[in-house]
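User: Can you fold this complex?
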Amino acid sequence: MDNGIVISSRVRLARNFAGYPFPAHLDSEKSLALTQKVYEALGKGEEKFSIVRISDMGKQQGEALKELHLISDDLLRINKYSAVIVNKSNDVSVMVNEEDHVRAQCILPGNLLAEAYEKISDVDDMISAGNNIAYSPSLGYLTACPTNVGTGMRASAMMFLPGLSLTKSLEKCIGAVARFDMTVRGEYGEGTSSEGYLYQVSNAKTLGLTEKDIVSGVSVAVEQLEKNEITARQLLLEQKGTTLRDGIMRAYGVLTNAYTLTTKEFMDKLGLVKLGVWYGFLNCDDVSKLDELAKDCRPANMTLKSGKNMDSEERDVYRAEKVAETLSTLVRKTKN
Amino acid sequence: MDNGIVISSRVRLARNFAGYPFPAHLDSEKSLALTQKVYEALGKGEEKFSIVRISDMGKQQGEALKELHLISDDLLRINKYSAVIVNKSNDVSVMVNEEDHVRAQCILPGNLLAEAYEKISDVDDMISAGNNIAYSPSLGYLTACPTNVGTGMRASAMMFLPGLSLTKSLEKCIGAVARFDMTVRGEYGEGTSSEGYLYQVSNAKTLGLTEKDIVSGVSVAVEQLEKNEITARQLLLEQKGTTLRDGIMRAYGVLTNAYTLTTKEFMDKLGLVKLGVWYGFLNCDDVSKLDELAKDCRPANMTLKSGKNMDSEERDVYRAEKVAETLSTLVRKTKN
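Assistant: Here's the predicted assembly.
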């Protein structure tokens, strides 16, 4: 059964076309030509893809796509003629002219790393077919940044780790995982702090191993962290039951009643509410709806959905209203 | 209309019998004789009084009566043969052998100082009838402590002043009131800090003025503070509307969901909830029930009512459950 600890699984591949400078040094003509090349290649499959060019993208839309992990900050910065190509279900996104010519990713909800790898491999095959991809027999795929050379692959899982975080044992577990060349970071990657007890676990190395090695390596790390997390949750209940339950119930009380809520506070308290559902202090028939709510309440996504022009103070009030509305129906106190 | 700012009005008189040492130096025989004298005097009226002797009183019961302002700490300390005599509605309580032989008080809900004075005067007349009360034509009533000599009277009002407290203008208002020989203190008198934004306003002087002077003096001070409080609340709404509403709604959220609650936190957050009802952020058909809840949730009263033997951690959990139960039905969010 899905215990909600692995929120999503993601695999991304970095690819470049031979004979073209990397995007940072690519002129407009070649940038556009590459974009067209990738879009056409993807058009040959069964799945329908749509393209959004950065030049046509409003600031809010760009932010919204970043919040959903469909594009990166670099896509908006490195090359003026960059674009993102996504499938209908939004689980495959191909960035063109980010740091590399192609950054193709598949992101699936839950613990589905192998499936994500399979799906993105198909996409990779489509792009490679009939195109000359930069590849060295000794090194593997060539990329703009040496850290990606080799497989050009990063496999990661977004994990919900409140137990490890609240028992302050995350550091130790990260250390253990790092010995297997894994990295643990905040939800939005390097240098971002964790919100809502969400952590990204990914491979640190891309060179000298196969793609399957990477997928199985990350899977093992995820499995280990999952076990640690469950142990930590049990410990927390035994040692600090009252404080724990109180903190969770207060978080629920604030989320269902506050008049204003920042994203950070919302995410952290939502994390506690989800933990409360796991313990059975709170009832929720469909926890995945809480993760959806988390996405919908990110600043840019929320603003776009609302159709309103809001400053940050108004947005926090609007968020509080939405959250209270949704949570009051979705999550209920368990009878003692 | 009652705006809930004056919670209760209280008048107490200090009296002593001529020819008897003060209670601190009174032997057992005389202590018991005096108690009997007072109890008999009160028995002559229409109202039925009952007597509780300190020697028969459990620790919890003593604490409970203190929490309800029916007895003082000194009653439990100064003389082993002290007692309290109360009427059925608990609004008249006569302490025998506290600091003085007789401390008679009337406490009424709301802004009813004149009525409280009238009622306690009748009680005073009953006690004085046929008894020799220590009185000096030049000084007035004689008391154990010189600060009570004269009228032996203290008139006070319990006021709910969140506006003045949150705008940090209470100090200034206390200063203004002090110039008219009034004192402002926490709910449980001298040296106690305020909980739940409750403050006791009383006369500082008992000598050189009449009882009616005192009642009207306190009434004027109460009226002034009431006006200041309303102005402060309006200012707060204008200047810090979002923060104010947010704080109130969170207090409500915590009180209806927390798993554990100390008295202090409960009182402070209940104060915010009451303020929220005043502003119309929250709906409550009967605010006086919130003040009743406050009494019922004091440690000793709650323990007695529960019929359970609880340590302080269990009591806080029990309180949280009671409060959530009561508030969820009594107070509702207003639709925005």
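Residues 12-137 of chain A form a domain with the Creatine Kinase; Chain A, domain 2 fold (CATH 3.30.590.10). The longest strand of chain A covers residues 6-15.
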